[in-house]
Amino acid sequence: MVETCKVCGLPKDLCACETIARETEEITIQVEKKRYGKQVTIIRGITSKREELERITKELKKKLACGGTFKDEEIELQGNHKSKIKDLLVELGYAKDQISVH
Ligand SMILES: [Zn+2]
Questions:
Q1: How far, in Å, is the centroid of ligand 1 from the Cα of 31?
Q2: Does the residue 47 lie in any domain?
Q3: Number of domains comprising the chain
Q4: 73 C-alpha to center of ligand 1: Å?
Q5: Given pLDDT bands bounded at 50, 70 and 90, which one contains residue 55?
Q6: Residue of 22, 42, 18, 47 lying closest to 98 (CA atoms)
Q7: Domain that holds residue 86
Q8: How many angstroms is it from 21 CA to the middle of ligand 1?
């Protein structure tokens, strides 16, 4: 049985809902200071599924050689990666104009 999308009714492999959702996401990047003065880079606004978020987190950790985690649709990376993170997200398929760095 072919799995169909609940939103558009098309078979999953023809459905573009997720791609569309992804293109309309507004991603914000913010560097926050944690206890003991440690900085973390927080990425908010990626509404993909858990597996996708896991994949993105893993990929960013690898590219930035840092620790990180995600919870509640927030990716938290250790350290200040403001200058690189936008380019990395673009590499992962996001558009420059959907990403804002604060
Ligand atoms: Zn769909």
A1: 34
A2: yes
A3: 1
A4: 21
A5: very high
A6: 22
A7: 27-101
A8: 10
What spacing in Å lies between the alpha carbon of 75 and ligand 1's midpoint? 26
37 CA to middle of ligand 1, Å? 44
Per-residue DSSP letter, 23: H
Q: Which residues have beta carbons under 5 A from ligand 1 (an ion)?
A: 5, 7-8, 15, 17
Report CA(17)–ligand 1 centroid distance (Å).
Answer: 4
Instruction: With respect to residue 2, please indicate whether it lies within any of the assigned structural domains.
Output: no
In this prediction the pTM is 0.77
Encode pLDDT of 63-101 as tens digits: 999 999 998 889 999 999 999 999 999 998 888 989 999
User: Residue 39 has which token pair?
Assistant: 């900085």
**77-84 contacts, C-beta under 8 A, 24 or more apart:** 77/40, 77/41, 77/42, 77/43, 78/38, 78/39, 78/40, 78/41, 79/39, 79/40, 79/41, 80/31, 80/39, 80/41, 81/31, 81/41, 82/29, 82/31, 82/41
